[in-house]
Amino acid sequence: MLEKLRQYFIFGRLGVKLYVLAVITGLLSSLAIILLRLTIDFGQMALFPSGEVESYDSLPWYWLLVLPIIGSLLIGLLFRGLDAEQRNTGILHVIERLSSYEGRLPWQNAVRQFIGTSIAIITGHSVGREGPGVHLGAASGSLLASGLELPNNSVRILVASGSAAAIAASFNTPIAGVIFAMEVIMMEYHIASFIPVILAAVTGAVVCRLTFGDDTVFVNLATQMQSLWELPYIIFLGIIIGFLATLSLKSLKLFSGTFSKHPAWLRPTYAGILMGIFGMAVPEVMGMGYGIIGSISANEIAIGSLVIILILKLVLSSACVGFGIPAGMVGPTMVVGACAGAILGYIGNLVLPEYASSMTFYAVIGMCAMMSATLKAPLAALMAMLELTGNPEIILPGMLAIVFSSLIIHDYFKLDALFVSILRYRGLDFQNDPISQALRKVSVGAAMQRNFVTLNQVINAQMAMQTLKNSPEWIIITRDRIPVVMMPASDLARAVSVKEMGENSEIDLMQIPGTRRDVHKISLHTSLFEAYQALNEHHVEALYVSRQNAPMIERIYGILTREMIEAHYQLPKSVTK
């Protein structure tokens, strides 16, 4: 039954079948996010004397000092003895696996992500749960696809679906979840991917609302722009946010390279020491920091405190992630942007109170501009702004701030998006050009030629004539049951017709005149991108597509040539050489 189901997805047109799997992925992803959130919340409530989430200020000073250090030591022990591949977590891990492994994520890394993130946030590290949530959501889709042995192009779509559901469930923002998955995870827009990703995001948001209610993670953010005269000041805000985003990326790079030769399991402890020292002085910088945004919207925080929190949050979140704490920077980045926006809003109200909007308005603009600049995700930031505030009028000023923050970091400082920068800093080859994108969308099962036969190198004339009656286009020639070359069936027909043979006359298919192509094996689950790489890597002219149906039993399903790949996407001559 399972084997029939697998073949149903491999060979048939996906359509509705993939939509059903996307809904299941959205459900699994949202359940993972809910479990992560509840684990963190109940862990903090049990730890703090006040019994409230993120109430670090209720702890005595010595606990503020030692708690992050204890957490980082536990994380170090969790990751001790593992190689770099086994330690990888978060959005960076998802993008890397999409780039190099067609989106197949190991479940062990996801488990370590869940445990490590829970420990990190409970013990006060300045990190977020959104990046880990995306990892868990993507892993949900990847593991579902792997269990059904789906082709790699379908794996990629379910990974994007799980990522979208994770963001939708984390912030209660389904549209932003869809755009985030396309801009940050897949780094492309393709109509075939939108419907399953939308279904997954809606599923994630619905399950989240059934569990936590209809409110977004940030409350009381509804606000209005007072005057069009504010637009120049909003442009100035965008420029400032661009510089802060640049500083954030450069800080992350600095901490990632600091003590890089020290044991990997020990490096998180350095983050714990920093968090303990500064958290003891300013408890507000510990944890995700979402309470800061709530205090801004309620006008319950002083401008001096905002400045200190902005500086410490930017540095400490970069230090935590750079030193190897397995959590994300999306949440802390938004908090930094909100603080910067609120500070500029405060100044604007001092200078021109009759024209300036509220601090909350500028905090929302700053929060989303920072997200856009750091992640290179302008549309996701705009949609998040719309869904978090429920106010479409905020889109106009938000677009201005996002444009100018992006101009500063990406055009003036020439920096890539956060996760791409880290990948390239680590020396990993990241390919996301249009050709690679197009080839990754198509499985070899959709492009291969199935009109072929498999013959031993030496056959008799009767078998040759019987084979040709079925009008095959290609012949795979085997030696000791192993495919070695393939040739057009027309060459065998020509050899049989030019000379008369008895039925038992032997024909050596390697000796008759013909065009033979060296072949190499490729899995039925791979994409055309992997097939194209295999042609170049093994220096062959064709591939035979196979799949193991049972132990020691392998079946050949089709053949694939360079021309067949080019039929799906016309490669430039410089690439095909």
Automatic annotation (TrEMBL):
InterPro entries: CBS_dom_sf, Cl-channel_core, ClC, ClC-type_chloride_channel
Transmembrane segments: 20-40, 60-79, 191-212, 232-252, 264-282, 319-347, 359-382, 394-413
Bilayer topology annotation: Multi-pass membrane protein
Keyword flag Oxidoreductase: no
Keywords of this entry: Chloride, Chloride channel, Ion channel, Ion transport, Membrane, Transmembrane, Transmembrane helix, Transport
Entry's localization field: Membrane
Domain of life: Bacteria
Pfam families from the UniProt entry: Voltage_CLC (PF00654)
Listed name of the protein: Chloride channel protein
Species per Swiss-Prot/TrEMBL record: Methylophaga thalassica
